[in-house]
Every structure is written in C-alpha cells, then in structure tokens.
Amino acid sequence: MKNQNIDILQKKLQALQPYAIAYSGGNDSTFLAAISKHFSMDFCLIHCISEFTIPGDTQRGRTFAREHDIPYHEINISVLGTAEIVTNNKDRCYYCKKIVFKKIQEYASQSGFKNVVDAGNVSDTSDYRPGKKALVESGIHSPLLEAGFTKEDIILGLQRFNIPYSKASNSCLATRIPYGTGITQDVLDTIRRAEEFIIQLGFDGVRVRYHYPVARIEVMMPDMQRIIDLDVRNKIVAFCKQLGFLYVTMDLEGFTSGNLNRMLDHE
Predict the structure, then answer these.
(1) Which residues of 203-242 are buried (b: 16+ CB within 10 A; e: fewer)?
(2) pLDDT in tens, 51-98
(3) Cα distance between residue 267 and residue 173, in whole Å
C-alpha cells in the first residue's frame, strides 16, 4: 500500500461526501470504513440483510461499527422472489446487485447521503463479476478500485489499524451453489448450518459447496491437515449427513474464491 494510493483515495472520498458505504462486514468494506473514519469523512454504513447474508458477517459489522463509533444502519430485503435470481444462471449476481443497491441508494438518499460507495478493488477484476455491471449502471462508486488498492493492501491496512480480519474473502451464500442449480431457502439454510458448524471447530475461510447429494468442503491450505484429523473429520461427516448430504468430500486444492466460476469456462 503506497502513500500515493492513500492520497488518491483520500481525495476521492472527500469529493464523494457525504456518502454511504455498502457495508458487508467483510475485510474490504471494513477497511473502507476504517480509513473513512481515519480521514474524518462524512459517511455512514448501510448493511443489507437478505436470504444470502451470512449471520456472522452481520454480527461482525455491528460490533465493528459500535466499537469505532460509526453510524450504522441495517435494511432488510428479500431476493428469493426474483426469478432471475433463484434460477441461478451466470447473471444471478447482476440481478441481485441491482435490487440490493437500489434499496441502499434509496435509504442513503432519504438519510441525507448523496453517494453510495462499495469496496470493490483491483483484486476483484481478475474474476467473473457480473455484479460489477450492475454497480456501474446504478452509479455506485468504487474508490478503492479507482485508487489502485488490492486485497493485499487492504489486509495490510487492517493490520495497521489493528482491526481483526478474516484469512479469506467473504461472499454471499449463493456463491456456494453451482450455476443452474435452483436456489431455495432450505438449500441456503443447509449451507449456512454446515459452514457454521465447521467454523465453530476453529476453522477460518470455510466454504461448503452444494453439489447435492455431495457436500464439497474447502478450507485454507494450512488447515488441511487438521480437518482430516479422525475426530474432527468424523464430527463434520456426521453433521453434514444429518443435514441430508449422502457424501462429504474435501477439495484437495483448498479454499479458492470464485471456485464455481470455473464451470463457465466449460460451457
């Protein structure tokens, strides 16, 4: 993270005031909030809760905002009533972002904030991100991207601010479901419960990919040896089978953000 990037970011944020950060509770948006606070910007956080939201992200967001005395708002929205989302084609994220950010913009405007910013950054441009098109169409600003910040820069920034961070990038629950597999509340609940169980065993950066009747588990490479420990393995297998999976597998490549996007290369 270069001083030049920080200077560019500060100028861009100053020009966008007063602004609302679309706040997920993950590393990227937390850093954007922290540096906005550091620069004494006029801003707030808006956290949107839908069926795709991971409860742990919401809790982390609430805690962070409270501990750093940052104005924080939550809005609730349902996305499962939209056919383009629940059919889960490759443009699902586009339709979801359009709905979510429209709601955030409306709330921000009513609260006196003229712009909405998200925490997209340079590292996000290396993967398939149909949601980015929705943000551009909606007039959402991405100051971290414009200032040249990468995810590595963001982790360094969080370390400097002494703010806890996750080893892995966060993403919504829908990213665990292969394109073409319909999304239902039951499927989302199954994924959520499986991941929460594994996280409670002490793992960070967990994904349970839904290939029913198979659960394909991804963890960070340093955790690979521990998760195949007999006692740990037996607990995970038993719990996943209670959830209805017939087979429980480990991905030997470990955690990979955007893993299911590989399928698009073979269409």
Answers:
(1) bebbbbbbbeeebbbbbeeebbeebeeeebeeebbebbee
(2) 999 999 999 999 999 999 999 999 999 999 999 999 999 999 999 999
(3) 23
Are 204 and 166 spatial neighbours (Cβ–Cβ below 8 Å)?
yes
Q: What is the pTM of this model?
A: 0.91
Helix (H) or strand (E) holding 131: helix 130-138
* Residues 184 and 86: beta-carbon distance below 8 Å: yes
Instruction: For 152-197, write each residue's pLDDT tens digit.
Output: 999 999 999 999 988 777 889 999 999 999 999 999 999 999 999 9
Write down all domains in the chain, each with its CATH number in brackets. Answer: 3-160 (3.40.50.620), 173-266 (3.30.300)
The b/e string for 19-45 (b: 16+ C-beta within 10 A; e otherwise) is: bbbbbbbbbbbbbbbbbbeeeebebbb
Tokens at 129, concatenated: 């991100």
CA 161, 165, 167, 169 dihedral sign is negative
Q: DSSP 3-state assignment of 249?
A: strand
| Nearest CA among 181, 175, 174 for reference residue 89 | 181
Tokens for 152? 């590595």
pLDDT digits (tens, 9 = 90+) for 7-23: 999 999 999 999 999 99
106 neighbors 91 (Cβ within 8 angstroms): no
Sign of CA dihedral 140, 144, 145, 150: negative
